[in-house]
Amino acid sequence: xxYTGAQSVLTGTPGAxxxxxxxxxxxxxxxxxxxxxxxxxxxxxxxxxxxxxxxxGYKAFTxxxxxxxxxxxxxxxxxxxxxxxxxxSELDELREQMGICKEYITAIxxxxxxxxxxxxxxxxxxxxxxxxxxxxxQGLHSLISLKSAMVTSVKAKNFNTAAGLARRLLELNxxxxxxxxxxxxxxxxxxxxxxxxELEYDERNPFVVCLKTYKPVYxxxxxxxxxFCQAGYSPGCKGxxxxxxxxxxIGLKGSGLINSRNQRSRxxxxxxxxxxxx
Length: 278
What we know:
Layout: H1 2-5, E1 7-10, E2 19-22, H2 47-62, H3 66-79, H4 88-116, H5 122-132, H6 139-155, H7 159-170, H8 176-191, E3 207-210, E4 215-218, E5 224-225, E6 232-233, H9 266-269
Antiparallel strand pairs: 1-2, 3-4, 5-6
Helix pairs in contact: 2-3, 2-4, 3-4, 4-5, 5-6, 6-7, 7-8
């Protein structure tokens, strides 16, 4: 736990019990005071440590171990609650790590649901596959999701949808064999400009996916967000627990996440990332 991670155990004289001692992360310039308000406790959740966990999540995702990858990203996102930083650059990096975790959790939940729940439903299967391509993933992972969604759309004879996915795939400058496949799809789609199925999907209109309903919430539509990770949901999900971070309440208005004592007070934060004093 975070608490035990900030403790050390010291030995005393022979036969005496072990003694717990709190560790400080600012021990080099810490000076004792009666109130003890100068010491900053050591925390096991640090920006470099979170990055290592994210890399482990990337690796599991690349290997197709989606359940393992999901567990790593959710745990990393929750650890942000306990992280402490001492500079604006570290705070920015911490918020970037939150965004990475949120995007990958969303992508994994979409792909898992598509495979398990909608494998026999061509419309929903295509929709979730297309939604996943809009998650902000690493280049290789975005390429994999686009290729999968493109192939699925071609098999379902949704050629207009497949053409859009193929076009985005080519923009990533893929390997020659994948590029050739995408070009073939583009040629096929140009000769068959139609969709067999109507999808609830507009690639030109920015959206977030509500992971309660697995439906898109397009820009301009009413939306509720998690009080912690800011994941977006349909208005009807207000008051429920966020399925992304599994820690925040949907629609809850808070003071904002405070990860540094140099940030503004909670009353001033107003749901943003806070600021640093000059």
